[in-house]
Write a structure and sequence with these properties.
Blueprint lengths: L6 E6 L3 E10 L2 E11 L14 H18 L7 E5 L1 H5 L3 H12 L3 E3 L2 H13 L8 E7 L4 E7 L2 E8 L3 H8 L7 H15 L13 E4 L1 H13 L6 E3 H14 L12 H4 L2 H14 L4 E4 L4 H15 L3 H12 L4 H17 L9 H13 L11 H11 L7 H13 L14 H16 L12 E5 L4 E7 L2 H4 L1 H14 L5 E7 L4
Parallel strand pairs: 1-4, 4-5, 6-9, 9-11, 13-14
Antiparallel strand pairs: 1-2, 2-3, 6-7, 7-8, 10-11, 12-13
């Protein structure tokens, strides 16, 4: 297949949409192509936090152009992530439905913590493993990510709602670059960042790095003016702010290296950087080569070639944190996987991705027990919907939460798409596994089978005729399960088989 080794990362940022294409060669990412468009969706959120139709159309048009470049690639070669603007937007589902249709690949809305983690991974790939303790900062359009890490490992990760687009709108709305406007914007940014003071003291890092848009734009201007290349110094930043104030308005600012798409959001970016320098006692911010999209690409390569997936480790950590019975979760995972495999058939194959998601849901199905035995499945779903779990996007976590919520209890009010064969199969496999493992012992699977007819929306659970006599409680629970599925578009049937000779 052409482009079989190509990896693509798409970053749907608040100011720009970016797409990077590359290949891994000898453990290093080699760029094949890079596309960037200034979409500035973050500037078109109204007071109710809804994206305007114009902002959505700009995004859709950009994604259509991206699609033309990557058409024909497999899903596992492309990762598209959306950040703060789409995290905030109340009508994001309207945008995402059409965006997915246009792009042809899933789009993940990632949490601020996950964004910070991927930024550090991207930055660290372009730096030596020399034991240096790093502070990495990315001033985006509507959020600023801060990470402490060493070598390839991020340690402390947070996202704060302050950025170049939102601050420019709020404090430089008319484009006026006055000293008063800069002071107000800096103080407001410091107020937001105050909670970060305890997490990022100067004695925990040796060198500060800045990643992506705002940092790169400011560093380019300073370099063209004769300041040290690849660095934003405290003095250089103060000089640039003085230049902006002397111009009085962004339209009159004439500086070599200032790109037109950065002009309107420069004031907000400078104010946020000034707040960071002062608040965290930064003397110089060194420009990092890597960014969020590089972190996403390296993780795709790692999953494909090494079999390692940080999501596995995250699930294990979450299970440990909530004191899950590991023997029971392993038991349920094994049996659920067997039931899912039984439903694998031509025309309706069970994907490896579906198996992994079911395995994660099985491992986590009892995390709510640490809160209460009553309605523990609801507590578990709440935890997953509200946790920052490394490696997972918000839609992935929500899908896991639906499986955890649905593994027990009534199905009628479960908010899943019963036309989605994959999640329905996962749900039944998990519910049957929990039923058969109710005694917290390995169940006898000999003679049991499960068939799925997606066209008729029928499941058929088969067991030997004497199974009910041998396992009366399991048989009773299966009968209850049949009743539960009657209140959905699907039917679960029980078929008794004659005993084998």
């Amino acid at each position: 297949m052409p482009f079989a080794d190509l990896l693509v990362a798409i970053d749907l940022g608040s100011n720009s949409f970016r797409m990077e294409l590359g290949r891994m060669e000898h453990g290093q990412l080699v760029r094949s192509d890079y596309l960037k468009e200034t979409v500035r969706q973050g500037g078109d959120l109204d007071e109710q936090r809804n994206l305007s139709m114009a902002a959505m159309e700009r995004g859709w048009d950009c994604l259509a152009r991206f699609r033309e470049r990557i058409q024909g690639l497999k899903d596992q070669q492309v990762r598209a992530v959306a950040t703060q603007t789409l995290r905030e937007a109340r009508n994001r589902d309207v945008f995402l439905r059409k965006a997915h249709e246009i792009l042809g690949y899933p789009i993940e809305i990632i949490s601020g913590t996950e964004e910070a983690r991927l930024i550090y991974i991207g930055v660290s790939q372009f730096l030596p493993n020399d034991g240096e303790r790093r502070l990495v900062i990315d001033v985006g359009g509507r959020s600023t990510e801060m990470i402490l890490g060493q070598n390839r490992e991020p340690v402390t990760m947070n996202s704060y709602r302050v950025g170049s687009v939102s601050w420019s709108q709020k404090y430089f709305a008319q484009g006026q670059f006055t000293a008063q406007a800069f002071d107000r914007a800096k103080v407001a940014a410091q107020a937001v960042l105050e909670e970060a003071l305890a997490a990022y003291p100067h004695d925990l890092w040796d060198k500060a790095y800045g990643a992506s848009g705002t940092v790169g734009a400011v560093a380019d201007i300073l370099q063209m003016a004769g300041w040290t290349p690849g660095e934003i110094s405290r003095d250089g930043l103060a000089w640039l702010i003085q230049c902006a104030q002397a111009a009085q308005h962004f339209s009159r600012l004439r500086l070599e290296g200032l790109k037109e798409d950065r002009r309107a959001v420069l004031g907000g970016g400078l104010a946020v950087l000034s707040a960071l320098f002062e608040q965290f006692d930064i003397d110089a911010l060194h420009v990092a080569q890597g960014a969020l999209r590089h972190g996403a690409m390296y993780e795709m390569a790692e999953r494909d070639h090494s079999g390692l997936d940080i999501r596995d480790a995250s699930v294990h950590r979450l299970a440990e944190k909530f004191a899950v019975d590991r023997q029971q979760s392993a038991r349920v995972k094994t049996i659920a996987g067997q039931f899912l495999s039984m439903m694998d058939m031509p025309g309706c194959p069970v994907t490896e991705r579906a198996r992994r998601k079911l395995a994660w849901a099985s491992e986590l199905h009892e995390i709510g027990l640490s809160i209460s035995h009553s309605d523990y499945h609801k507590h578990g779903a709440y935890i997953l919907d509200n946790a920052d779990v490394m490696g997972f996007s918000q839609p992935e976590l929500h899908r896991l939460s639906l499986l955890v919520l649905g593994h027990h209890g009534k199905l009628r009010k479960l908010d899943i798409d019963f036309e989605d064969v994959q999640i329905v199969q996962q749900l039944l496999a998990l519910r049957l596994s929990v039923i058969l493992c109710h005694s917290r012992r390995d169940p006898v699977m000999q003679g049991l089978s499960l068939r799925c007819d997606p066209s008729e929306k029928i499941f058929e659970f088969s067991c030997p005729e004497n199974w009910a006599e041998r396992f009366p409680q399991s048989h009773h629970l299966i009968r209850q399960e049949i009743d539960a599925w009657q209140k959905t578009p699907w039917t679960l049937k029980l078929r008794l088989l004659p005993p084998s000779n």
